[in-house]
């Protein structure tokens, strides 16, 4: 990988200062940031509103506005908690985990010896999942490379801790993932990011076609690795429960349409646990099926 720019190190130093604040203060600041975004109608607020309209969630105006307010507060908290996780020792981060559910599923998948594909959607705090897995042993993580060199350098500093191997989400990502799985290791992939055209399949997500990453199903089919969903769900006391859940076996099947639909159904079930904790500020539906006549549903008001 290329060297990390000096500007990335400066940015990380600034993040370190914020990450060292007390947790209670970080969470209050996150709530305040969310209230500000809601009150000012920021881009994140507009995208969240449009997403809820697209998936027909909270159909009444008052209910939808309340849902958006909760989403933005959770998003604000997640931002500050992420800076904390990126800049503190792993032992401090793991103290945020109050409980672990489904650990037997992970143990059984590892014992099978064919490797484990961890599908970790953007729900709760993704970074805490990464830290927890790296504390258990080598963890190979696919990540989307930021457009700027500075952003990429910062992300590599933030996520490149002990036991973590970062794999750019590019055309040759399959090779290092295959190698990790053949060795019986764990590969982490976010299943709910919109890929480029040609790198995925359109599959239903909350009843609407969404271009869906095909890397997880294809890798599962070819490697025979078990697929588990993993997420760190925020609890009412401000700490998290780390959860592992077996995925639908169809995700590893030869029918790519059925596989991507099953994967989206799994992500949707997780998102429905607590709508506030899912990444509704992300433009999930910008690319539309070719020949459908549909256009980008977000429009200039969400830029």
TrEMBL record:
| One Pfam family, short name | Lip_A_acyltrans
Its annotated compartments are: Cell inner membrane
Q: Which UniProt keywords apply?
A: Acyltransferase, Cell inner membrane, Cell membrane, Membrane, Transferase
For this protein, the record's InterPro entries field holds: LipA_acyltrans
User: What GO molecular function terms would the record report?
Assistant: acyltransferase activity
One Gene Ontology cellular component annotation held by this UniProt entry: plasma membrane
Q: Does the keyword Cell membrane apply?
A: yes
What's the superkingdom here?
Bacteria
One record GO biological process: glycolipid biosynthetic process
Protein name listed in UniProt: Lipid A biosynthesis lauroyl acyltransferase
């Amino acid at each position: 990988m290329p060297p990390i720019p000096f500007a990335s190190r400066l940015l990380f130093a600034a993040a370190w200062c914020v990450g060292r604040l007390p947790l209670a203060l970080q969470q209050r600041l996150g709530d305040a940031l969310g209230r500000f975004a809601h009150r000012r109608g920021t881009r994140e607020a507009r995208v969240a509103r449009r997403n809820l309209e697209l998936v027909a969630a909270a159909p009444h105006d008052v209910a939808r506005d309340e849902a958006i307010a909760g989403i933005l507060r959770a998003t604000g908290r997640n931002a500050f908690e992420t800076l904390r996780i990126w800049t503190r020792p792993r032992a401090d981060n793991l103290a945020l985990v109050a409980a672990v559910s489904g650990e037997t599923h992970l143990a059984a998948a590892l014992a099978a010896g064919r490797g484990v594909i961890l599908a970790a959607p953007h729900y709760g705090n993704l970074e805490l999942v990464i830290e927890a897995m790296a504390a258990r042993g080598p963890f190979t993580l696919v990540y989307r490379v930021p457009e700027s060199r500075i952003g990429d350098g910062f992300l590599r500093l933030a996520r490149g801790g002990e036991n973590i191997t970062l794999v750019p989400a590019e055309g040759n990502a399959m090779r290092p993932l295959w190698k990790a799985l053949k060795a019986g290791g764990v590969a982490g992939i976010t299943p709910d990011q919109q890929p480029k055209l040609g790198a995925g399949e359109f599959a239903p997500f909350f009843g609407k076609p969404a271009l869906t990453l095909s890397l997880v199903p294809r890798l599962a089919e070819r490697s025979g690795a078990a697929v588990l969903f993993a997420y760190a769900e925020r609890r009412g006391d401000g700490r998290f429960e780390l959860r592992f859940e077996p995925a639908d076996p169809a995700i590893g099947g030869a029918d790519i349409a059925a596989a991507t639909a099953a994967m989206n159904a799994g992500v949707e079930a997780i998102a429905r646990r607590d709508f506030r904790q899912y990444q509704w500020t992300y433009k999930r539906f910008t690319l539309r099926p070719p020949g459908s006549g549909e256009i980008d549903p977000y429009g200039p008001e969400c830029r």
